[in-house]
Every structure is written in C-alpha cells, then in structure tokens.
Amino acid sequence: MNLPTSVPQIKILIVEDDPLIQLGLEQAFSKYPQATVVEVVGDGYSAVSAAIAHKPDVIVMDIGLPRLDGIAATQRIKAELPNVHVVMLTSHTDSTEIVAALSSGAEAYCIKGTSMNRLMAAIEAAYEGATYLDPQVGKKIFEYLKPPMPSTGFGELSERELDVLRLMVDGKSNPEIAAELFLSTNTIKTHVRGIMNKLSVDDRVQAAVVALRSGLV
Fold first, then answer.
1. If you compute the radius of gyration of the chain from its CA atoms, what whole number of angstroms results?
2. Dihedrals φ, ψ of 178, to 5°?
3. What is the DSSP letter of 200?
4. Which end of the chain is more exposed for a tag (fewer CB within 10 A), N or C?
5. What's the rounded Cα separation, in Å, for the pair 68 and 66?
6. Which of 17, 4, 10, 11 is nearest to 44 (CA)?
7. φ, ψ for residue 73 (rounded to 5)?
8. Straight-line distance from the first to the last Cα atom of the chain, in angstroms, rounded to the nearest whole number
9. 84 in helix, strand or coil?
10. Whole-angstrom Cα distance, residue 67 to residue 45?
C-alpha cells in the first residue's frame, strides 16, 4: 500500500482480550505504514495504565473486557487523557451499548468482522477528531440523538450536496465518498462543511439524523 510521505504516524493501543484477535490486529496493522502499535493489553484496567504510559493517538477498544469493561475504561481514560481518541471494535450491536460507548467519549464504533480499510478509516477519522459509525449500527442510535431541527435550509442543498449526504447516512468516510463520486477528498470535505452549515448541525452524525427524520434521503 503506497502512501504519501506526509501521512502522519498514528500510535495505536489495542485493548482486546481474545489472543487470536490480538494477533490478527497486530499483523493487520503492520501492513499500514501510518499505524504503529505501541502495546496490546487484555483488560480494562491494563488499558487505563497503558494509555497513561504510552499516550497513544488512538485506542482500539473492545467492550466486553474482563475486570473493567471497555465503556468504563474509556471514561477513565478520557478523564485522564481527553486528547486520546477511542475507536470501539466490538461484537456488541445493542443500541444502548452503542450510545453508552459514544457517551463515554469514544469517537468511533466498529463491528468485529469489518474490513481493515473500514477500521483504518475509523481510526483516521477519530485521529482527526471526527466521528465514525459502522454502517451496520449507525442507524440504530439515531432515535437516541436530539439534533436541532432546522426550520430552514433544506431547499438550499444542491444536488451534489444531497448525493454526499446520502453517502454520509450510509456511514461512508470522506475518502469513500470521494471515490464513489469521483471527486477529491478536499472537495468532499468542503461539501460536508456546507451541508452541516445549511442544516445547522455540529457533526456528521447529527446531519445524518436530520436527513433521515426530515425525509431528505
């Protein structure tokens, strides 16, 4: 995989109690030059200690961990290290757990079995301070969110912005949207900013919620 030299190095802490998944993740990340695994731990308390010791950029965190679960561990880590980003990688798809994980401070939520490209997209999104939701679970949490409902602005969206918005609702990242629409990533970023401004929302998740509730997509 050829990447430009300007791609930043992302220090990753893996928190997973299954040894086979630990090994699989380590081997998979070794194929991505921008990813550096600083440590692998198997429980929530060790995750907190390792995060404080290494100060990773991103933590790939399971929820079902021994001693201290991933949601509680994320809360403790965020309290100590608010600038560390957390990507949940779990088999849990219950809406309550998804919302709890995001409320604890996780920036991204992926389901085990997702492709490495999607996981890296989630990691890169979290690293940049954005939110990423696996398409399998994204729509499950919309009912829990309370986005502002704009009274105006729907008619201002262009056809291209509507195309971008539909793909945002599907949980696609900016690079994936760019590839599908044959546009540059920078152009997609501009469209996303424009969509959020016109819908009076603060992030991609709220934009998707407004789109679904208002019938825009």
1. 17
2. -60, -45
3. T
4. N
5. 6
6. 17
7. -65, -40
8. 35
9. coil
10. 7
| Token pair of 57 as six digits | 């950029």
Return per-residue pLDDT of the chain as tens, 217 residues.
444 445 579 999 999 999 999 999 999 999 999 999 999 999 999 999 999 999 999 999 999 999 899 999 999 999 999 999 999 999 988 777 888 888 889 999 999 999 999 999 999 999 998 889 887 776 666 655 555 554 444 558 888 999 999 898 887 889 889 999 999 999 999 999 999 888 888 888 778 777 777 777 6
Partner residues linked to 109 by β-bridges: 88, 133
Sheet holding 10-15, edge to edge: 35-41, 10-15, 58-61, 85-90, 108-111, 132-133
Between the alpha carbon of residue 114 and those of residues 6, 91, 119, the distances in Å are: 27, 10, 7
Quick count: other Cβ atoms within 10 Å of Cβ 100? 19
Copy the structure tokens of residue 85.
Answer: 């980003």
133 closest CA partner among 212, 187, 200 = 212
